[in-house]
Amino acid sequence: MEDRQKKPLSLSSNSVRLGVLLALVGGFLDAYTFISRDDVFANAQTGNMVLLAVKAANRDWIGMLHYIPPILAFIVGVLVSEIFKTPSVRHLLYSYRRSILILECLVLIFVGLLPSSVSNMVVTVSIAFVSSLQISTFNKLDKWAYNSTMTTGNLRTATQAAYLAIKEHNQEAKKQFHEFFFIILSFIFGALSGTFSTTFIGNRAIWIASGILI
Length: 214
Fold this sequence. Notes:
The chain is mainly α. The chain has helices at 16-36, 45-57, 61-65, 68-85, 87-90, 96-113, 120-137, 152-168, 171-201, 206-213; strands at residues 140-141, 144-145. A hairpin with a 2-residue loop joins strand 1 and strand 2 (144-145). It is globular and about 55 Å long. The two termini are 24 Å apart. The relative contact order is 0.19.
């Protein structure tokens, strides 16, 4: 049974409103790590894999090792999300999706408590973990697949939908374009907010993302 339907969720798991909030968090976290942790993007593991391969090609074995922990943390996040979805675990929870958001919120609060002297790796690994939780649990916008922590795929989908809406006057494509357009704007706004708040507040700015999740 989906989330033990005791009460309807105030925001359904694939609603545009929830997608906007999660995209805000996704953009915020990318800007946060970039500003506060030496120009690192913790959400996107594609870049980490490319850099790992570059280091390996140059036989920089020590440098290569820096990119392995975030990738492993991302994998662990996917596994944790899948465990939360199993019937035996879901039976114990009011809502596994809400439980995922609570876990993500707690990890971000923990990151905000860390001093600047803590290794960047600790922060990067923590955010890669929660990013993975978010991606694995919330991956539908209305009835379409989307990503709340990276925007490349969303931009492709929005562009394709705009083309169909203009060329074929497809109303479904028009709706899809509008929804993905809002997600992309939310991601950008989240990145802007993360940049300004991290610049002026510092490491504890990540608590703003926790507040959005709450």
